[in-house]
Amino acid sequence: MTAKQKSDQKTFNEVLSECRKSDDFVSDTVHSNKDHLYYLHFYNSLVDTAPLNELIIKPLQKHPVFSFEDLKGKIPVKELNVAATGRDLEEGLHRGHVLIQFDPNEPYGLLVSVNRSENREVNIPEVEYSVIGPKEGLVEDLNINLNLIRKRLPVSTLCIKKIKVGSISHTEVAVLYLSDIANDDNVQTMIQRIEDIDYDEISDSSYINQFIEDNSNSPFPQLIDTERPDRVAAQLTEGKVAVMVAGSPSAITAPTTIIEFFSAFEDYFIPWHLASVFRMIRLFAVMFSVFSTPLYVAVITYHTELIPQDLLATLILSRSIIPFPPIIEAIFLELTIELLREAGARLPTKVGQTIGIVGGIVIGTAAVEAGLTSNVLLIIVALAALASFTTPIYRIGNTIRLIRFPFLLMAQLWGLLGISLLATFFLVHLITLKSLGRPYFEPIYPFRFKDLRDSFFRLPFKYQYDRPEVMQVKRSKRFSRQESRKSSDIDEHIQ
């Protein structure tokens, strides 16, 4: 029997008995002016005492009632529910409700919502910061996040389906989509995967992400997580499905493609030619980050004939006093970079920045002077680490950090052949990978020419009249292509 089934079988009085074991649970009585007695039960850590006194205790003291129907009319609170089962009672009490009973021996009562809400204010996105564009970021409160989305999409077709996930945490998960655009199969697949989650505690959207992605063993993220409400709204209009989790400051959108992980949302706030150049720079930086160090190891170990004569003398001089083979010094420097990253991320912000800068300079200089590594490889590893920071989505950056090490090992084993074999393996893996059942490597495979308009480069908005074909949406047209071509100056109409 699962924890959820056991929770559903608890009786009303069993739930109250369990709650009384906690020191922050209060069971109190209220006397009316006609000596009528009411019994109140609540968690004082979840209930706001000011509304409790004004909206519940004072009306009960002044206006005695003798039935639940009369009680609903006397208490000026919108959210009133009758708790008749242990499940209803447990959920209500832990959501900040107050239980009111006429008789403590009766297995039912009235739940009144006066919950205390401590929320972080809407602030600037920290991970996906942009110089141009909106500065609002998602927070941990689900209702605030839904408000940020509805402000941007004030249409009745924006549908929100809420699901409770977690047999212990009962975390509220919201699935968002535009009913007149989104593919029904995508929506139902997302809802079904979330409903199938059998886990006791869900504290962040990252949990949901790992449960619902198509291939949990792949190092490549198959869903985009973002803290920007404007990005969520834009992707909903493309026909995607979004997921928000109570207590999480980030949302999940799907289906997605590999190219989207290298597209910053700020690309849409700047001229299209600049955005296209920046995207190409990011893609080149990622390729350089993955292949630069393995290529160095492969060429120095097996293919020295590929090195130009002018450069060969410099490489020989830089390695003349190095006692280790190239693979050892490469792994040493790569691990050093990873240690500095982790130390900088885990320490307080100001200390972490100092460690990253000073530590990198001191350790790198000392390693070269001590003869543990060559200065040429130090430059290559530093540039590769810098290039990996250009990815706008954090999770794909972690993937780039990880896959560099298998390429290093294959470069040591079989040189350029090993790098080619591993690159082919990853290419086949990307081709077979799916996101919410849709091809992950689109528009390259399957090749779709129309979707190239917003992939490696971004064409002007007037050419983005179709939604991505990979979404298989109900309405493919974003606007009329003929109307977008109509452009006339004012002076053309002057006779």
From TrEMBL:
InterPro entries: Spore_Ger, UPF0353/GerABKA_families. It is found in: Cell membrane; Membrane. Pfam families: GerA. Signal peptide: none annotated. It comes from the Bacteria. GO terms for biological process: spore germination. Keywords: Membrane, Transmembrane, Transmembrane helix. Its main location: membrane. It is a multi-pass membrane protein. Residues 476-495 are annotated as: Disordered. One of its GO terms (cellular component) is plasma membrane. Residues 480-495 have a biased composition (Basic and acidic residues). The keyword Disulfide bond does not apply. The chain crosses the membrane at residues 283-302, 352-370, 376-395, 407-431. Belongs to the GerABKA family. This is Spore germination protein.
